[in-house]
């Protein structure tokens, strides 16, 4: 009985391997955890608020997803915010940084506040005003490429 089970198991593994997709897999892991050790700088928490009215850009609402980049990475539950057409923010933006960022980047898309998450449109880079509690004026953000423009 044990031999029959073992042979069935091995045959199953062979079949799975034979029909497996041979596309190389990408392993996603964070290197940001080591920034403090690599730089010798301590980590500090920063809180951000997005404000401003840019009706041509915000339209019916603007979903922003913080994109990790040195000197900061976003806390997992605090990297998505929604900006209303009248300039009010919903959500939290909390970052862990080795020093205050001068600019930060977001992936963005236009959507209502309760819309389900889906693909974003492109990237914007925004100047940061303030210190531990910083503000981002959406009208001062620089629009980067849309994802369809990358090759």
Question: How does this structure look, described?
Answer:
The chain has helices at residues 2-18, 35-39, 55-58, and strands spanning 44-51, 62-67, 72-74, 80-83, 89-91, 93-97, 103-110, 122-127, 129-130, 133-137, 142-146. The strands form two sheets. A six-stranded antiparallel sheet has the order 5-4-2-7-8-11, with no helix packed on it. It has a five-stranded mixed sheet with strand order 3-6-1-10-9, with no helix packed on it. It is of the alpha+beta class and 151 residues long. The relative contact order is 0.19.
Structure keywords:
151 residues; 17% helix; 3 helices; 6-stranded antiparallel β-sheet; alpha+beta
What fraction of the residues are assigned to beta strands by DSSP? 35-45%
Q: Note poorly predicted spans.
A: 13-20
Which class do the helix and strand fractions yield? Answer: alpha+beta
Shape: globular
| H/E topology pattern | HHEHEEEEEEEEEE
| Rg calculated over all Cα atoms | 22 Å
Helix-strand layout with pairing:
Layout: H1 2-18, H2 35-39, E1 44-51, H3 55-58, E2 62-67, E3 72-74, E4 80-83, E5 89-91, E6 93-97, E7 103-110, E8 122-127, E9 129-130, E10 133-137, E11 142-146
Parallel strand pairs: 1-10
Antiparallel strand pairs: 1-6, 2-4, 2-7, 3-6, 4-5, 7-8, 8-11, 9-10
């Amino acid at each position: 009985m044990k031999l029959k089970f073992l042979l069935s198991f091995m045959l199953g593994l062979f079949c799975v391997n034979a029909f497996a997709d041979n596309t190389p897999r990408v392993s996603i892991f964070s290197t940001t955890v080591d920034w403090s050790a690599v730089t010798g700088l301590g980590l500090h928490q920063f809180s951000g608020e997005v404000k401003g009215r840019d009706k041509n850009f915000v339209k019916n609402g603007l979903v922003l997803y913080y994109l990790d980049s040195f000197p900061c990475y976003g806390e997992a539950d605090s990297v998505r915010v929604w900006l209303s057409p009248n300039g009010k923010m919903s959500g939290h933006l909390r970052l862990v940084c080795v020093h205050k960022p001068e600019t930060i980047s977001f992936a963005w898309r236009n959507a209502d506040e309760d819309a389900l998450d889906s693909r974003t449109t492109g990237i914007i880079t925004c100047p940061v005003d303030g210190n531990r509690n910083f503000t981002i004026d959406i009208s001062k953000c620089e629009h980067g490429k849309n994802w369809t423009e990358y090759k």
